[in-house]
Known about the structure:
Strand content: under 5%
Order of helices and strands: HHH
Oligomer: single chain
Helix content: over 70%
Amino acid sequence: MRPETQATLQKSEYGEQSNKLFQDYLNEWTKTKWNLGEQTIEQFLKKQDMQADIGLLSI
C-alpha cells in the first residue's frame, strides 16, 4: 500500500471515530434532556464533568 493511501485511510478512520463520539454525546444529552425535562446544557456538562471546557470556550 502506498503511504498516501494509508494516510488517507487513517484520516478517514479518525473522522469516523470523532463523528461517532459526537453522535454518542448528542444522543446522551438528548436522552438526559428528555428524562429530566427542562435541563440546561451547563447542568448537563457539569454532570459530565466537562465544566473546564466551558471555561476554555469563554476565554
